Amino acid sequence: MNFPTYRPRRMRANAVTREFVRETTLSAKDFIYPLFVKPGTGCKDAISSMPDVFQYSIDMLEAEMEELRSLGIQAVILFGLPEHKDECGSEAYDDNGIVQQAIREIKRCCPEMYVITDVCLCEYTSHGHCGKLDENGYVLNDPTLELLAAEALSHARAGADMVAPSDMMDGRIGAIREALDDNGFTNLPIMAYSAKYASGYYGPFRDAADSAPAFGDRKAYQMDPANSNEALREVALDIEEGADMVMVKPALAYLDIMRRVADEFEFPLVAYNVSGEYAMVKAAAQNGWIDEERVVLESLLCMKRAGAKMIITYHAKDAARWLSAR
Ligand code: PBG
Ligand code: ZN
Q1: What is the predicted pLDDT for the residue at 51?
Q2: 119 - beta bridge partners?
Q3: How far are the Cα atoms of 84, 207, 299, 315 from residue 303, in angstroms, in the given order?
Q4: Average pLDDT over every residue of 218-227
Q5: At residue 261, does pLDDT exceed 90?
Q6: Is 132 among the catalytic positions?
Q7: 275 lines ligand 1 (CB under 6 A)
Q8: Cα 124 to averaged position of ligand 2 atoms, centre (Å)
Q9: Residue 321 burial (CB < 10 Å; 0-12/13-18/19+)?
Q10: Which residue, 41, 99, 116, 208, could crosslink 47 as a Cys pair with Cβ 3.0–4.6 Å?
């Protein structure tokens, strides 16, 4: 590059010219809002490590849909806290499970809301792991695929618009695609948690979803934070198996992975701005140490700049409010 007279600051001097040269934009339509649903009535229960995020009983969803709609948020992703947990996570694939009930309720009161469901077993198993265990506590891959496919299919039958497997078993996108296709859900898309890392940033989520593993960790199935080339292989496999969107998770410490995936595949990419990222910002903001609005909007914009098309974020409602006031 040889532009001897180029002075980048000339275009930075004025808000209008800054807008002229802006490469990335942020809108409420980019956001997917996570919702935790639980049994009971009249519950809108706080989560101590995630200020302003709640666990809702089914009867409280209608008011929440009103709020999301008024903010221009078009999509949610559901996580369930079941009535009962067992070894095989049976409520995950029960047509009357908590997520299945929530899907039906949202579709009743707000049919235009786009409903994505997290497909995993950790919220439903008594041991808190994302699949079926052998006698040594190892998560069995292929037996778990059957349960995940049953769960995705049950969500589809309840009226979900998209399913999002987050378990990190090998071959799960193919197994779920086949189950959906065989049962008349050929047009139901899959959002794959493709490059999902074994991360300390999921801590607050495990309080919110009551899904911490009872022993050990998830390093035998989620990715090693040290790896980047492997993320490309994971994404390639998921696309080959039939994924319609791919994800990198967490977001902020993994923007390099997002950029590589975006460049390599030019495929719809989702960023998951996870619970620990949310909690850090909230804690600093509550202490008056950072300007929450600035930091949140900047972080979300940077995820898009890194290549994400959509962002799953607990900040969605605040961010939508701030954006509309601009
Ligand atoms: C379930 C799941 C997790 C998250 C999304 N789906 C937790 C985990 O893998 O332990 C984390 C989301 C967050 O931290 O916000 N497998
Ligand atoms: Zn899981």
Answers
A1: 97
A2: 165
A3: 37, 25, 6, 13
A4: 97
A5: yes
A6: no
A7: yes
A8: 9
A9: middle
A10: 208
Q: What is the mean pLDDT of residues 80-98?
A: 97
Asked if 99 and 37 touch (Cβ cutoff 8 Å), the reply is: yes
Contact 93, 147 (CB under 8 A): yes
Question: From the CB of 185, is ligand 1 less than 6 Å away?
Answer: no
DSSP string covering 261-273: HHHHH---EEEEE
**Catalytic residue, candidates 38, 85, 132, 196:** 196
Q: Is 274 in the pocket of ligand 1 (CB under 6 A)?
A: yes
**How far, CA to CA in Å, does 126 sit from each of 129, 133, 324?**
8, 11, 43
286: its two tokens: 């509550």
Structure pTM? 0.98
Separation of CA 43 and ligand 2 centre (Å): 24
Question: What pLDDT is recorded for position 1?
Answer: 81
Q: What is the DSSP letter of 133?
A: B
Q: How far does the centroid of ligand 2 lie from the alpha carbon of residue 215, in Å? A: 14
State the Cα–Cα distance between residues 193 and 118, nearest whole angstrom: 9
Q: Work out the mean pLDDT of the chain and round it to a whole number.
A: 97
CA angle 179, 34, 161 (to 5 degrees): 35
Q: Which residue in the list 38, 132, 249, 282 is annotated as catalytic?
A: 249
278 pocket-lining for ligand 1 (C-beta < 6 Å): no
Q: What is the pLDDT of residue 271?
A: 98
44 labelled catalytic: no
Residue 192 banded pLDDT, cuts 50, 70, 90:
very high
Ligand 1 mean position to 205 CA, how many Å? 6
